[in-house]
Amino acid sequence: METVFPKDFLWGGAVAANQIEGAYNIDGKGLSTADVVRYVPPAERGSLDELLGMSRSRLEEAIKDTKGNYPKRRGIDFYHRYKEDIALFAEMGFKVFRLSISWPRIFPNGDDSTPNEAGLEFYDRVFDELLKHGMEPLVTISHYEIPVELVRRYNGWASRELIELFVRYAEVLFTRYKGKVKYWLTFNEINCTLKAPFLGAGVIIEEEPNPKQTAFQALHHQFVASALAVQKLRQIDSNAKIGCMLARKLIYPYTCHPLDVLQAQEENQMAQFCTDVQVRGSYPSFIRRHWQEHGVTIEMHPEDESILKENLVDYLAFSYYMSVTASANPAEAAQASGNLSGGLANPHLKSSEWGWQIDPVGLRIVLKEMYDRYQIPLFVVENGLGAIDRVEDDGSIQDDYRIEYFARHIEQMGEAIKDGVELWGYTSWGCIDLISASTSEMRKRYGFIYVDQDDEGKGSLKRTPKKSFYWYKKVIASCGANLDND
Ligand code: BG6
Fold this sequence. Notes:
There is one protein chain. The protein has 486 residues and is α/β, with parallel strands linked by helices. It has one domain (10-477): Alpha-Beta Barrel (TIM Barrel), CATH 3.20.20. Helix content is 41%, strand content 13%. It contains 18 helices and 14 strands. The protein has an 8-stranded parallel barrel with strand order 1-2-3-4-5-7-11-12, surrounded by 5 helices. The model has no long low-confidence stretch (mean pLDDT 97). Residues 16, 144, 188-189, 247, 319, 339-340, 382, 386, 429, 436-439, 444 line the site of 6-O-phosphono-beta-D-glucopyranose (BG6). 6-O-phosphono-beta-D-glucopyranose (BG6) binds next to loops.
């Protein structure tokens, strides 16, 4: 069978430290912002904003609480089971494994004078294990968590002080893992700082007089920190590559009415401007108009402009799960839910059990559009289907719906490659079942590998390959040529 994927295409899977590691207070690790997020059962959940937000009193309460249900504290115990998990990834033929480093495992309070050696050793062991199995680690430096102490002292990324602390943390990582890690990413889904400031930037937005101002300011600090990390990596390890990472939810106009088209364009731009900054090196003009109209004035230091201009990323990574629509008259259309934020429904698409609209062709559109706009290599570092899996009487998990989701998305990536897009790799999200970022659930499963654990943390944690495990193995072995489900 002929494949359109390059021979060295990086097939693999992706996870984040706070959603898998567990061991939240072991070997010197400090508390992270993910460790203070309490599980809320579906019937008691308010809006997504409420679920993802944080108040100072809730934070202090959670820090003291050792008995409540905080799923990200336990993850899926990857901390102790990484060898078994990595062996399963190797069995599928992974060429790359995307993971993140927990900042408070390295600097427990974020501003400690020396790094925590036990934390650094843990990632040494993980990287060595991956390399032993021929897998490249693809490492996100900050994936939806910062040390809790940085929230208490600085209100997270709202404060400029975090730039220096982050760059020092990144420098420690680059120096320690030089030669082991070839692919780095600075911030996961950096645009989510605007939608979910606590999740994305450790900012308690509820206490801010102008939340929009604070969120944009926090994002500016992250842009500068990211650019300085790029600069550091170039000084320390010139063989490694570093990218930015965007949550790319495609937004179509609800109708062909010009005002709907404009609305969709503006909503798409609210994500794209982040990559404009990190790939092109400056804020685009449309964002300045947006700031003006919303009373936002970004405080910039004189050197910021040149820092952003001179330290561009090597590649652009992004997550893609779904698409929505936008209208100038939103009341006309039904709502759809989505990855950290929703939009309007699209009558042509079906949805997942969580209401995320499934749109494989949208992935091709996004790939073409981003390549056209930036002309640098792309990497799909998250894509997947959150679903409820059933364990059959014989212990198997027949997740044909997941195979269908992946097959159609991989097919569209192939089309984009035929269109001329330079695509380095594909890491499906949650290649092993893990704790959900938004809802802290376990029952929303993404993996090729089933993990026996429920939302309350009950279960044996036993790992079982699902039907999709054997399917993905075949996909990788054929370098994307064989997508059949047989
Ligand atoms: C992305 C995040 O937004 O979506 C992941 O980078 C997250 O951390 C994934 O897990 C899926 O979202 P959820 O809320 O279903 O876990």
